[in-house]
Amino acid sequence: MTDRKTELAAGLERVEQRIAGACAAAGRDRDEVALIVVTKTYPASDVRLLAELGVRQVAENRDQEAAPKAAACADLDLTWHFVGQLQTNKARSVADYADFVHSVDRARLVTSLSSAAGRTGRELGCLVQVALDAEAGGRGDRGGVAPDGVEELAGLIDAAPGLRLGGVMTVAPLSGEYAGRPAAAFARLREISTSLRAAWPAATMVSAGMSGDLEHAVAAGATHVRVGSAVLGVRPALG
């Protein structure tokens, strides 16, 4: 086993132990929580090694990096998640490779993604990004729609050709009442998810938790955790 593959295997094992421990503490089955490995800033060769180690779900947050990486790994049996803020002019590119977009936060993006999905003939799973730092009717510092706008946006996704409403996503906010309180933030997301599923029972995905706070997310009912540095190591500096 190469040195890098050994490093990745060790990182995966540590994260697996954390997720399993968090599930046990929350009284949940381990298979209720999917690990998405966020490979941003890391090369396609790492994606290939992760696939050899059993990883099946990977994520990116910048299309200019994600598109060539997904193309280089097109022969692998992977589910690709796009988790970053998305400009409408990138929707067509993202729809070519992404299976899920976690960061849907405005009507114009729904329209763009629906049009792009139509061109590709693929169905695109979409999650409403919830901004827990946003004022009513607003958007968050790192994207996302305020909680009061979730239902309307979900309805737009559900009605859009080529799109499927998957659920909700959040990032623990850096400001506002939930700053520094990931457990409370993820509990609020779970409330929003429960309300959403009353209207759209199939929208079961709850995407929350990263390397530093995945235990809180699992405790609050996350179905998908997005982990990068805890698996891959400290990220290279961006030039």
UniProtKB/TrEMBL annotation:
CDD domains: PLPDE_III_YBL036c_like. This is Pyridoxal phosphate homeostasis protein. The lineage of its organism: Bacteria, Bacillati, Actinomycetota, Actinomycetes, Kitasatosporales. Keywords: Pyridoxal phosphate. It comes from Streptomyces rutgersensis. PANTHER family: PROLINE SYNTHETASE CO-TRANSCRIBED BACTERIAL HOMOLOG PROTEIN, PYRIDOXAL PHOSPHATE HOMEOSTASIS PROTEIN. Residues 32-236 form the Alanine racemase N-terminal domain. SUPFAM superfamilies: PLP-binding barrel (SSF51419). Belongs to the pyridoxal phosphate-binding protein YggS/PROSC family. Pyridoxal 5'-phosphate (PLP)-binding protein, which is involved in PLP homeostasis. The modification N6-(pyridoxal phosphate)lysine is found at residue 40. It comes from the Bacteria.
